[in-house]
Amino acid sequence: MSVEGKLRLGVNIDHVATVRNARGSAYPDPLRAARIAEEAGADGITAHLREDRRHISDADIEGLMDVLNVPLNFEMAATDEMQQIALRHKPHAVCIVPEKREERTTEGGLEVAREENRLAHFIAPLRDVGCRVSIFIAAEQRQIEAAHRIGAEVIELHTGAYCDAHAEGDFEARDAELERLRNMSTFAHSLGLEVHAGHGLTYDTVKPVAAFPEVMELNIGHFLVGESIFLGLGPAIAEMRRLMDEARATT
After folding, report:
1. If both were cysteines, with which of 42, 59, 77, 131 could 11 make a disulfide (CB 3.0 to 4.6 Å apart)?
2. Catalytic one among 15, 38, 55, 75?
3. Among 217, 220, 230, 161, CA closest to 189
4. Exposed, middle or buried, 54 (CB in 10 Å: 0-12/13-18/19+)?
5. Which one from 15, 38, 48, 217 is the annotated catalytic residue?
6. Among the options 38, 158, 199, 227, which is catalytic?
7. Active site residue 189
8. pTM (2 decimals)?
9. 42-74 pLDDT tens trace
């Protein structure tokens, strides 16, 4: 399996909806953010419809399916409710993620190895209607092997531990996590899986991950929404796109 094509940027718009919902208003509008992201160089839009609807709403998903000119990556828990929503909309991609009501954000990767049979049956109908199925997992060989066995086409490696170590100034741990991500990207690619990565990436941490030749897509959201307060959403995304392209050009 060869490595081809430019590194794609998926922009997660969840936290535009978080700000909107804080006041129960109609603004800022996630659909407007998605259109700006497209214009700024995003290759796709990611939105996580959580069980508690804390940010993205069902109406947002319907609107995104209507207005997007780039693919929608629909993040979802492995529940019957979310499966039915995905089967109704048939987004370009679905990314199966772990979800707990009490967490602030997705804290880790999906435990695939312990739930192979259930997840294999869960994703089969999604694949049958043409959705590209991605599994959000930690950079661990057993999880990658399990994702491959259940028929996932894509894995997305959780970069949170790497980013957290960098933010805490623990550079030994940061470098160890980066090496783990590098090795597992190579391993997943060797199995024929398409490799994506994301969670917590910033301008300071994106380039080492973007330089991995096996990684085909990065999904970034919270940082870009935060940075847009200072730069504007379009320029914040354009700068991330520039850093990714710069890293890839030196690979």
Report:
1. 42
2. 75
3. 217
4. middle
5. 48
6. 199
7. no
8. 0.94
9. 999 999 999 999 999 999 999 999 999 999 999
